[in-house]
User: Which sequence fits this backbone?
């Protein structure tokens, strides 16, 4: 009887300790049997598959041509854009799960289909300089299925005031 009570206490304390741990941000990612990410809107159609752990050399790798871009001098109110090109140099299909800009003035668009080894994709950023002045430095964080899990692209622009002439 005492042994059963002790076992119950140990199990209960282990469960309560485990439930207090920080959640893995990738734990909500749903993968199919080929380790491919399932789109959020399709997840209800598939069984939840735990994220596979790959060996270090098996992950996809993202190689961005130039992860820093300078728009140079632009005028306040200008809307500018740039396309960052990248290639998958890893062994598995690369998926960009999300792209998050450091401010609301920047809108990222990215290749949403899986990118096979050797294939390329793009991240287009659109920057609205309305209400901005001087040197602006912004980032876009790509959440990926690479071993690291994210990649950062940077851009900057020097914003000059509008002139009164039309």
Assistant:
């Amino acid at each position: 009887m005492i042994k059963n009570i002790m076992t119950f206490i140990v199990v209960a304390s282990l469960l309560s300790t485990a439930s207090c741990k920080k959640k893995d941000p990738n734990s909500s990612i749903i993968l199919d049997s080929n380790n491919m990410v399932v789109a959020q809107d399709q997840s209800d159609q598939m069984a939840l598959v735990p994220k596979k752990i790959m060996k270090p050399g098996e992950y996809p790798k993202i190689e961005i041509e130039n992860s820093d871009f300078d728009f140079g001098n632009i005028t306040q109110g200008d809307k500018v854009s740039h396309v960052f090109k990248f290639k998958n140099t890893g062994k598995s299909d690369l998926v960009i799960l999300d792209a998050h800009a450091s401010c609301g003035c920047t809108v990222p668009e990215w290749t949403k289909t899986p990118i096979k080894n050797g294939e390329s994709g793009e991240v287009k950023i659109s920057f609205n300089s309305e209400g901005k002045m001087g040197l602006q430095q912004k980032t876009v964080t790509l959440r990926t299925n690479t071993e690291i899990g994210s990649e950062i692209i940077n851009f900057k622009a020097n914003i000059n005031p509008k002139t009164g002439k039309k």
In short: Helices lie at 2-19. Confidence is low (pLDDT under 50) at residues 14-28, 43-51.
